[in-house]
Design a protein that fits this description.
This protein is an alpha/beta fold. It has one domain (7-349): TIM Barrel (Alpha-Beta Barrel), CATH 3.20.20.70. 30% of the residues lie in helices and 18% in strands. The chain has an eight-stranded parallel beta barrel, surrounded by eight helices. Helix 3 (127-142) packs across helix 4 (170-183) and helix 4 (170-183) packs parallel to helix 5. The structure holds flavin mononucleotide. Flavin mononucleotide binds at residues 21-24, 46-47, 61, 86, 88, 90, 92, 119, 151, 153-154, 191, 218-219, 247-248, 251, 274-277, 296-299. The site of flavin mononucleotide has 29 residues, from strand 7 and helix 8.
Length: 365
């Protein structure tokens, strides 16, 4: 049997299912072009908006590491450490829509077989903001973008009517989808926040209102650590911090659980898995829980010597997935996508030590 890395996801053909997530690796034309040259199947652009953006006066992202000898988590340089997470408080793209448009057009013309998903964001609560969503959507589709990802998930916004601040509101999810769907006919992905007690309701509203896919997860709201000696936060401006987003390996399990929840509730719907992918094993785990597309951010940013776009990483991901498909005799990821779904059950259904317990049931491998 011949195996293939190509996948069809939300009606789009991906040469491989690995996509750079919306973040610094996709913040400009130069990086996106290099990413496609390196072999990524697609990119979700850094989120594009219409309002002015000014980032904090200090580092926007830190990389935290831990070690076997002293396993605390810190950005401090120490020998023999491994990656734990990224923490960031970066806002959306500070490049204007007008500057993005010719770049997106050139990228699509140069790499017609790679998928360009434009991440966009506007506000909520009035018709002017709905018009902003429509304007952004029409503009990016007009220059050839294959799909749109609605950013309803950024955990650190400078406005109350944007990002994760509105992701609890099913009416807003519906109204934004309605506005964007009235403007364009490409697939619309909706990126939700993992920090939402009613995630399933949000996903249901998004799918019902016409979302082709849910993208999960954005970073988890979190605080950076304080150093006991200096009493400084590991990232701060004038001694102050605010909630930012945790990404990377540290969020893998939590991201998987949320992807699994949505995938089991809506097994026929599409889901793009994000959060802690560093190689094939993490990607595999998202696929078995139902993801048909994989997005990567922190691991690509951390790769040294490649300008933070994961040149070695994409080669490894492709090689390792290829080898796995061959070894198992699978023609594509579709043959094992979702196989974990039926093995996630209620706690009461897990067999107990005592034979007399009657709440459990046997699971066959
Ligand atoms: C520095 C940085 C900037 C990010 N900017 C955006 C953004 O503009 N829009 C967005 O939807 N997600 C953004 N993200 C979130 C990532 O796309 C991704 O969802 C998250 O980092 C989890 O993936 P990871 O564990 O592979 O890093 C950003 C993440 C980081 C680290």
């Amino acid at each position: 049997m011949t195996s293939s890395l190509s996948t069809t996801f939300t009606g789009l053909n991906f040469v491989n299912p690995f996509v750079l997530a919306s973040a610094p690796p996709t913040e400009n034309k130069r990086k996106i072009m290099r990413a496609f040259e390196a072999g990524w199947g697609g990119v979700v652009t850094k989120t594009i908006g219409l309002h002015p953006v000014e980032n904090v006066a200090g580092p926007k992202t830190i990389y935290q590491r831990t070690s076997e000898t002293k396993p605390y988590v810190s950005r401090m340089k120490r020998p023999d450490t491994v990656s734990h997470s990224s923490w960031n408080w970066e806002l959306i793209s500070d490049q204007s829509l007008d500057l993005w448009l010719p770049d997106l057009e050139e990228i699509k013309t140069t790499y017609p077989d790679r998928m360009v998903i434009a991440s966009i964001m506007a506000g909520a609560g009035n018709e002017e903001e709905m018009e902003n969503w429509r304007k952004l959507a029409k503009a990016v589709v007009g220059v050839g973008c294959d799909a749109i990802e609605l950013n309803l998930s950024c955990p650190h916004m400078d406005r109350k009517d944007m990002g994760a601040n509105v992701a609890n509101d099913e009416e807003i999810i519906r109204s934004v989808l309605q506005a964007v769907k009235s403007a364009v006919s490409v697939p619309i992905w909706v990126k939700l926040t993992p920090a939402n007690s009613s995630l399933l309701d949000g996903a249901a509203a998004a799918y019902d209102a016409g979302a082709a896919s849910i993208s999960l997860c954005n970073t988890f709201p979190s605080l950076p650590l304080m150093d006991p000696e200096t009493l400084k936060f590991e990232v701060e401006v004038d001694g102050l911090v605010t909630s930012g987003g945790l990404g990377g390996l540290a969020i893998l399990h939590q991201a998987l659980q949320r992807v699994s929840d949505i995938s089991r509730a809506f097994p026929d719907k599409s889901i793009s898995g994000i959060g802690g992918i560093r190689g094939f094993r993490e990607a595999f785990n998202f696929i078995v829980h139902g993801a048909g597309n994989l997005q990567v951010c922190t691991a690509a940013m951390e790769e040294k010597g490649s300008g933070g776009i994961g040149v070695k990483l994409i080669q490894e991901l492709k090689d390792d997935l290829s080898a796995y498909l061959e070894q198992k005799g699978h023609s594509s990821i579709e043959e094992f996508r979702g196989i974990a779904r039926e093995r996630i059950v209620e706690h009461s259904q897990i067999r107990r030590k005592s034979d007399t317990y009657n709440g459990g049931f046997a699971i066959s491998a």
